[in-house]
Design brief:
The protein is an alpha+beta fold. It contains 6 helices and 10 strands; from the N terminus they run ααααββββββββββαα. The strands form 3 sheets. Strands 2-1-3-4 form a 4-stranded antiparallel beta sheet. A hairpin with a 2-residue loop joins β5 and β6. α2 packs antiparallel against α3 and α5 packs antiparallel against α6. The longest helix has 61 residues.
Length: 441
């Protein structure tokens, strides 16, 4: 009878594996909290992307159209197709916008013959999601009162001889793990911009009426038929050119997937060729090319060869002197390649600094634009909305500058890598030339 009691007391006093037991009890709670945080963060990011996408489409919709100094700017169905395809590209493959969502573009205008009566002149849609505009369809306002477009009490309106591009984006959120809080799966965002230039408001035109472009009709629910809005394009071309000036001949040939260039200079020491008939010849060829695209790219190659045979005549020839000349030329080429590498590194560092500065400027511009819109919605003053729109455009320009700076940095970084490879090639050529000289001596 006493033994079970003793064992029980011993079990209660035993603290072995206590930490592992606590960890096993807390693991489900910690894992649940961690996954919930990841899901919430992802939803916030997607919501922000959808909001930015709506503003991006509305801004571009206010700019589209041909360029004419003689008449109002016309818009075409092809312009709207490009606008909607651009939205998918902007969303990226991660969102897969037109598979899980829908974009609706509406032209809010003043009813012809009235002072300020509002109506939806036309509407274009794209996306597989079953979603209709919350604020009206094409033609609404002609035979009924339409206060504008937008949430009740916050409607935007168009002015006479102008239009407002009103964009709605609806997207079915795709959870990473699940929906722990049972929130609505559809994320919606709206944005509107006043048309920037004088626009022909009579209708949407076709570039070629005999071969009309597809109309993004709101009665159909289809995507773009591609992923990410991009296709694969292959092309092939070959171009060659040859230029001779001042004793220098340059030949460049470019084809599909790359280009090649060679430069031969008969004077100046960058290319030296020495040969004798029936004697010993030593040849050193060095070529250096530099190109710049947002950075500096330098390529230097050097090769050296030495051969000897019995002389059957001609001037006396000193093979050691020729080999020494080849070494000197290869060393000069190596030094030039080193300088080019250092210059490319400096250019890369400068491009990186420019990119970081542009990125910081873009982030500040976006913050200012968001703050301006928040203040404008609070105050409701048209002047605040106008200022917010200007700041938004400045933010877009700053983002474009940051993207361009990033591309320049990438090009400069690649140029630096090419210059390093060229320097290594030049060092190898120099070593080969020294080996050839050593073999003769």
């Amino acid at each position: 009878m006493m033994r079970p009691l003793v064992n029980a007391r011993r079990f209660l006093r035993d603290s072995t594996a206590l930490a592992a037991t606590e960890f096993a009890m807390l693991l489900p709670v910690m894992l649940g909290l961690g996954l919930t945080g990841v899901e919430l963060a992802n939803r916030v990011i997607v919501t922000m992307q959808i909001s930015q996408l709506a503003a991006h489409v509305a801004d571009n919709a206010s700019r589209i159209g041909d360029q004419s100094m003689l008449e109002d700017r016309r818009i075409y169905e092809a312009d709207i197709q490009d606008l909607l395809l651009g939205a998918e590209v902007h969303g990226g493959d991660y969102l897969d916008l037109y598979t899980h969502g829908r974009v609706i573009v509406s032209s809010l205008e003043v009813v012809p013959g009235t002072d300020d009566d509002q109506y939806i002149h036309w509407q274009r849609c794209m996306g597989e999601k079953r979603y209709e505009s919350t604020y009206g369809k094409a033609g609404d306002g002609l035979n009924s009162d339409l206060p504008g477009m937008g949430p009740p009490g916050e409607e935007v309106i168009a002015f006479d001889d102008n239009a407002v591009m009103f964009v709605e984006v609806a997207y079915d959120y795709q959870p990473l793990i699940g929906d722990p809080f049972g929130m609505a799966t559809t994320i919606t965002a709206t944005s509107s911009f006043t048309v920037r230039e004088d626009r022909d408001l009579t209708r949407i035109y076709q570039l070629d009426p005999s071969n009309p472009d597809e109309v993004a009709d709101c009665g159909t629910y289809t995507g773009t038929g591609n992923s990410g809005g991009t296709g694969n394009t292959s092309s092939s071309s070959t171009t060659s050119s040859s230029t001779t000036s001042g004793g220098t001949t340059t030949t460049t040939t470019s084809g599909a997937g790359g280009s090649s260039s060679s430069t031969t200079t008969s004077t100046g020491g960058t290319s030296s060729t020495t040969s004798t008939s029936g004697g010993t010849s030593s040849t050193t060829t060095t070529s250096t090319s530099t190109s710049s695209s947002g950075g500096t790219s330098s390529t230097t190659s050097s090769s050296s060869s030495s051969s000897s045979s019995s002389s059957s005549g001609g001037l006396p020839y000193d093979p050691i002197a020729a080999a020494q000349a080849a070494v000197d030329a290869a060393e000069a080429a190596k030094d030039a390649a080193k300088d080019a590498r250092d210059d490319a590194k400096d250019a890369r560092d400068d491009a990186k600094d420019d990119w970081e500065d542009a990125k910081d400027d873009a982030e500040d511009a976006w913050d200012d634009a968001y703050d301006a819109y928040r203040d404008a919605f609070r105050s409701g003053r048209p002047s605040d909305f106008q200022r917010a729109a200007e700041l938004w455009q400045e933010a877009i320009d700053a983002q474009d500058a940051a993207d361009a700076a990033q591309a320049a940095y990438a090009a400069a970084d690649q140029a630096y890598e090419d210059a390093k490879d060229a320097y290594e090639d030049a060092k190898d050529a120099y070593d080969d030339a020294k080996d050839a000289l050593k073999a003769l001596t």
